[in-house]
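Re: the multi-chain job from yesterday

Posting the exact lines I submitted so nobody has to dig through the queue logs.
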Amino acid sequence: SYELTQAPSMSVSPGQTASITCSGDKLGNKYVCWYQQKPGQSPVLVIFQDARRPSGIPERFSGSNSGNTATLTISGTQAIDEADYYCQAWDTSPHVIFGGGTKLTVL
Amino acid sequence: QAHLVESGGGVVQPGRSLRLSCAASGFSFSHFIMHWVRQAPGKGLEWVAGIWFDGRNTSYTDSVKGRFTISRDNSKNTLFVQMNSLRAEDTAVYYCAREATILGGSMGYFDYWGQGALVTVSP
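And the result, C-alpha cells for all chains:
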C-alpha cells in the first residue's frame, strides 16, 4: 500500500522559514495537499494541488512537489502557525492517504 | 458558506454498533463527494470512507471494510456511517469532510470539515 512519510516534529524560530516535507514513491506524479490542525480544532486546508492556496490562507504558506518529496514552506513563521501539519494524496485504489503529520513548534 | 455538523457519537461496548450522521448546509449537498475521516486520540488523520454524489459508489479503508457502511440521503442533506462490530481501535474523533468540486469534477482534497464526533469503544 502507498505510504506518505513525514517527520514527527520540527521547530522553527519566529520569523524564520519552516520547510515541512512529505515523501512517497513518485509523489511528484500525484497532487498533494496540506492541512493545518491546531489542538482541539478540525483540520484546515492550507495548500491544494501541490502549490495553490485557498482563499484566506496567508501568502507565507507555499508548496511544491517534485520527485519523491512534497514540501510545505512557511515563510516568516509566526507563533500562530504552531500546529500539526498533514500532507494528503491518493493511491491507485483510489483511496485517500494521509501522512503521519508533523508537529511544528515555533520557539 | 458550507457547514457540516456531526452527531451520534458516544461510548459503546466492543462488538456493538453505532451510527453517525453529518448534517450539511450552505451548499448543494448532492453535487459533492463526501467522506469520513477519523483521528484516534493523540494520533494522526486516517481516511475511513467516501461516497459518490448519488451514493452508488463507495470506498473504504481496509480496516473497516465489511464493518462500516457509508451512505447518504440527498433529500435530507445528510451523510451517514453505520459502524458495526466496533473494536477498541475504532475509538476516535470522526469527521465528515466535503471533497472540493470544480465544474462538476472532484478535486481530491477536502475543503470543508465538520467539528467531529467522538466515538469511544470501551467495555
